[in-house]
Amino acid sequence: MPNSSDLPSLNRQFVAHFGEMGSKWGINRTVGQIYALIFLSERALNADEIAELLEFSRSNVSMGLKELQAWRLVHLRHHPGDRREYFEAPSDVWEIFRVLAEERRRREIEPTLSMLRSALLESPTSDAERHAQERMREMHELIDRLMKWFDDVQRLSPETVMKLMGMGATVTRVLTLKDRITGGASKKKTPAED
Asked: What is the pLDDT of residues 114-127, one digit of tens each?
């Protein structure tokens, strides 16, 4: 059976770091480490191998794998003649990012948008409520616009998105130039203007 000493040093560092970062992202440290191990693995791993490599209890690994499956971050595989379940991460890092973004949106952003929409349908009864509602409207408009942009980006190929991300400063300069020409200068200076 494998054990933690079978993990190369670089892999151990990544797994440890991912566990630390996972706790900052709102996931259990164990789940983060399990995912990092599966992500780096050259082949699908079963729960017993994961438990041995990370020196975790089998029950912790099972719970972690269930959570990763709920997030759609691991795929279940079966090997002919073997009754055990094997787990692997999607090979495309862009696909992993998309799944993470979609799940975070479904779990965190959509409930917030729903709450904001409900609040905006209320009739304010005081100046304080009118002010609060206006602030909520601004927040709703920003989040809604970001989600529409995200939907547009999701429809692009990964290659196109990578090109788009690489154009960040260039796009900023073009928009700044457009504002100067048309007289629609923004209120704040962009980094390209500094």
From this structure: 999 999 999 999 99
